[in-house]
Amino acid sequence: MNALLLSAVLGVVMMFSGIWLKSKSAIRNVAIVGMALLLVVNILEMSGMIFFRIDTKGMIVFDRFALLFDSIAFLSTLLYLFLSAQDIEKVGINYADYFALIFFILCGITLTSSFKSLLILFLGVEIISIPLYILTGSDKRNLKSNEASLKYFLLGSFSTGLMLMGIALIYGDKGSFDTNSINLITETPSALIVAGMLLLLFSMAFKVSAAPFHFWAPDVYDGAPTVFTSFMATIVKAAVFIAFIRLFEEAFGNLQNKWQLLMAIITVATLFIGNITAVFQQSVKRMLAYSSIAQAGFMMLSVYAMNAEAKEGLLLYSAAYSFATIGIFAVLIKMKDYTFDGFNGFAKHQPLLAATTTIFLLSLAGIPLTAGFLAKFYMLKAALGTGKYLWLVIFAVIMAAVSVYYYFRVIQAMYFKEGDPPVLQITPVFKWTLVILAALVILLGIFPNLLLTWYYF
Amino acid sequence: MNGSTVIFYLLAALTLVNGVLSVSTRQIFRAAIYLLFTLIGIAGLYFWLNYQFIAAVQVVVYVGGIVVLIIFSIFLTQQAGEKLQKQKIGRKLFAALAVFCGFGLTIIQVYQHAFYEPAETGVPVSVAAIGQKMLSMNDEGYALPFEVVSMLLLAAMIGCIVIAMKEKKITDNEPGTSSPDHTGKE
Fold first, then answer.
1. Residue B89 falls within a domain, yes or no?
2. Are residues A140 and B142, on separate chains, in Cβ contact within 8 Å?
3. Are residues B75 and B134 in the same domain?
4. What ipTM was assigned to the predicted interfaces of this complex?
5. B50 to chain A nearest CA, in Å?
6. B90 in a structural domain
7. Which of A11, A101, A143 shows the shortest C-beta gap to B184?
């Protein structure tokens, strides 16, 4: 509850700071301090200090899972602001409003991670989506950005419509939005419930860009300003996954044997399309867009498996994936040339940046001693734990091996090719935040319990 | 045939005739106006069923909002007075076939469905009851989602301003980004 209220208030504060504060660095500092405050307040709530006790009538429940994910999201956003807040300046003139929109998105994230009522899920997803449409199109002079925004808006509205239709059908059958009472389903669910569940499944799959609902993702991620791609491909995507797993565990958990095969098919399709298409990309930004689809495929494994390990694994995965991808995007923003060749000879000129980028890429590829390895390990273990569909696990491992190819292409360009990449100026804060991120990735890869103990205590 | 049935048939005729006209006219502006009357006819049916709230929403959202939006976009994009091209006969044939199939499917569904009288006569839901429910803090109230909606609207409003606000002449920007030819042409 702390974080929900504070993030909404901070959104308003950022809106006003755009009027009152003239200098851009002051606005930036307000945003960073606010973000740090949000993180602290949320951690305080995890240790039992709840400032606002509001009876939500069971519509929102802040359990450990939700609170821990919120903390991960806030920490990632804080690091993201340290790295990229200065680059947001270059997008357009509404500097403070971009931060306001980011805080509103975080507010939506706290809602979707803790909902118990489908109404709150819908509102949370919308609060996340609408600012994202705007952020995608915020580079107003760039036609690509406009196109991406329009595409995202139209397709996103369509999927929201599907979600609303699904909720209406379920309400029509059960007369309730409450996930627990929806889950009281007997052996044979009615046609309304099945149709509603499928519509919800499709719309959530769209929001996490799982195949075959992924078509918007590459264009939108490529067209959006890179600073905002970094935010929406990591924190927001992980948040929607948390909502996804919550929805299907709490509302449709009893029907698991009915939807599990469908989920497995979506997982396989997402892994296949994401990984194979990423291999053929020439631009690193577009490769990362497809890689985020591929990573979504791995996260889909947790929704498919839906056991204790899956939830643990999803938390670890969202942390590992967010940290690494934010880091790579932050480096990418500093580059002038987004192709693979743009990274030629990067290691000679920026050894520290190249080293941290290598750690992030290794983590995304799932090499041991990085957080990405353990995250993938948890996912595969969870999928094995269901005792069904062994082919799914084998396929996922093969696809992880494929992903090594395109991640290592960047490393190869950085270390083994000659070149002189032009790089924008780099501040010490940027460097140190990157080092902290890399350290976090390695630390979580060796001691995942540093994060996961919070889930239980 | 009592008065109520007569009113139903009148409303149904209004809806259907305007619906057919709206897809068959060759002037796009007229199509929008016929659509307006179709939607009013549907709102009338809701009134006839005594669903005042839904009827009011139908009028406010569809008749008042959506149709006006459609008319605006017609004026912005099309030459409103000009007639559209005549459709080829093959297209007409297939369109008629599609409509016929859809109609048949609906009819089959309606006849297969077993309609039955509700055990208890439904309580007419007044607009006041809906409003109280929406703002009530009781167990069945929806005060929290109502408040959350306000946040959604605020975010949307900020977004509109970000997108629509005119940019001032920027002078302190990097060279190249503010020039008009930097539009990412492919």
1. no
2. no
3. no
4. 0.87
5. 20
6. no
7. A143
Cross-chain CB nearest to A143 (options B165, B167, B183): B183
A123 and B161: CB-CB below 8 Å? no
Domain of B161 in residue numbering reads as: 125-168
Does one domain contain both B64 and B133? Answer: no
Q: What is the 3-state secondary structure (H, E, C) of chain A?
A: CHHHHHHHHHHHHHHHHHHHCCCHHHHHHHHHHHHHHHHHHHHHHHCCCCCCCCCCCCCECCCHHHHHHHHHHHHHHHHHHHHHHHHHCCCCCCHHHHHHHHHHHHHHHHHHHCECEHHHHHHHHHHHHHHHHHHHCCCCCCHHHHHHHHHHHHHHHHHHHHHHHHHHHHHHHHCCCEHHHHCCCCCCCCHHHHHHHHHHHHHHHHHCCCCCCCCHHHHHHHHCCHHHHHHHHHHHHHHHHHHHHHHHHHCCHHHHHHHHHHHHHHHHHHHHHHHHHHHCCCEHHHHHHHHHHHHHHHHHHHHHHCCHHHHHHHHHHHHHHHHHHHHHHHHHHHECCCEHHHHCCHHHHCHHHHHHHHHHHHHHHCCCCCHHHHHHHHHHHHHHHCCCCHHHHHHHHHHHHHHHHHHHHHHHHHHHCCCCCCECCCCHHHHHHHHHHHHHHHHHHHCCHHHHHHHHC
A330 within some domain:
yes
Report the residue from A12, A94, A126 with minimal CB separation from B162: A94
Same structural domain, B80 and B133: no
On chain B, the residues whose CB falls within 8 A of the CB of A107 are 151
Identify all chain B residues contacting A98, using CB atoms and an 8 Å cutoff. 162
Domain that holds residue A269: 252-457
Q: Decide if A329 is inside a domain.
A: yes
Inter-chain CB proximity A57 and B155 less than 8 Å: no
B54 and B131 co-located in one domain: no
Do residues B8 and B75 share a domain? yes
pTM: 0.88
Whether B181 is in a domain gets the answer no
List CB contacts (< 8 A) between B169 and chain A. Answer: none
**Is B52 part of a structural domain of the chain?**
yes
Residue A314 lies in a domain: yes
Q: Are residues B80 and B129 in the same domain?
A: no
Q: Domain holding B12: CATH number? A: 1.20.120.1200
Q: Looking at CA atoms only, how far is residue B143 from chain A in angstroms?
A: 9
Residues of A in contact with B185 (CB under 8 A): 143
How many structural domains are present in chain B? 2
Is the CB of A101 less than 8 angstroms away from the CB of B162? yes
Per-residue pLDDT of chain A (457 residues; tens, 9 = 90+): 889 999 999 999 999 998 888 888 999 999 999 999 999 999 999 888 888 888 888 889 999 999 999 999 999 999 999 998 888 888 888 888 999 999 999 999 999 999 999 999 999 999 999 999 999 998 888 899 999 999 999 999 999 999 999 999 999 888 888 888 888 866 678 888 889 999 999 999 999 999 889 999 999 999 999 999 999 999 999 999 999 999 999 988 888 888 999 999 999 999 999 999 999 999 999 999 999 999 999 999 999 998 888 999 999 999 999 999 999 999 999 888 888 888 888 888 888 999 999 999 999 999 999 999 999 999 999 999 888 889 999 999 999 999 999 999 999 999 998 888 777 788 888 999 999 999 999 999 999 888 888 888 7
A120 touches B at CB < 8 Å: yes
Counting the structural domains of chain A, the total is: 1
**A206 within some domain:** no
